[in-house]
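S.,

Sequence below, as promised.
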Amino acid sequence: MKRYREAADFAVGKAVLFTAFGIVVTMLGTAFDFALSARFGAYLSLMLAGTLLWFASTAERREPERTETFMLLPDEARPVSGAARRVFRTVLHDTYVHYARKAFQASVLLFTAAMLIKASGLQLGLR
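The prediction came back faster than expected:
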């Protein structure tokens, strides 16, 4: 189970990291207005959390062979029996939920920052 968790953390974490990089680049593109930039980041992070939750909800029905996590495992550690496949799917589900929770927390933080910047009345941004 430890190998499953490590492989799932690596595969899902890598995907989330690349997505986070895209979100940061989008936020930098709107850095002329920090409130707008934070709102963009919040909405995109919320979309990421929703996507991860969708993947978590479908993890129980997904064939392990069709996942990147399965491909990262050595041949002797790949789930073959029914019980091992259930454990694999559960680990994948838990990993998706973990990263969805982190993305949602980032979204709440960015929404709060956007509201505080807007409420302060300051015109913050790179001009």
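The two ends are 51 Å apart (CA to CA).

Coffee later?
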